[in-house]
Amino acid sequence: xxxxxxxxxxxxxxxxxxxxxxxxxxxxxxxxxxxxxxxxxxxxxxxxxxxxxxxxxxxxxxxxxxxxxxxxxxxxxxxxxxxxxxxxxxxxxxxxxxxxxxxxxxxxxxxxxxxxxxxxxxxxxxxxxxxxxxxxxxxxxxxxxxxxxxxxxxxxxxxxxxxxxxx
Length: 167
Ligand SMILES: Cc1cc2nc3c(=O)[nH]c(=O)nc-3n(C[C@H](O)[C@H](O)[C@H](O)COP(=O)(O)O)c2cc1C
Known about the structure:
alpha+beta, 2 domains, 5 helices, 10 strands, globular
């Protein structure tokens, strides 16, 4: 028998118990901060784009992942940039083989025009310096995923319903 008390505090208590029970049954859901930490610790990700109904996927190096979004860079001359200009909807896939954990993040990227950020990227990736010195900073294109929906997969949670984490 379930006794429901009318008071606000008790409703809160019952809700807490309910979610505790769910999280025990389905395993603990990762927090946004834990997801962002996972991305920083596993910075190479597969980036899927879709252009004219054709999928494309390639490895990309994460530049930054924090409360301001997920940042990566590419070249103005690359197909990736052209695909993102015509369709900015992406899915990113991060993986850690030791943990057997995969995190997919879907959302819409936007281009970031921030010369100071570009300078920091070139300072962090010195192999870009000669190219940018020769061609100018416009050839370096920076993208940001400001908000994404993350989906965590492990073998243990394989049969659980999908639970998205808002980033
Ligand atoms: C580990 C790894 C990291 C990479 N990081 C980037 C990156 O951050 N930006 C980028 O433009 N290409 C990166 N590449 C190269 C891309 O995967 C890809 O080959 C190239 O950008 C051309 O892709 P496109 O044909 O989609 O334009 C990386 C490749 C590897 C293997």
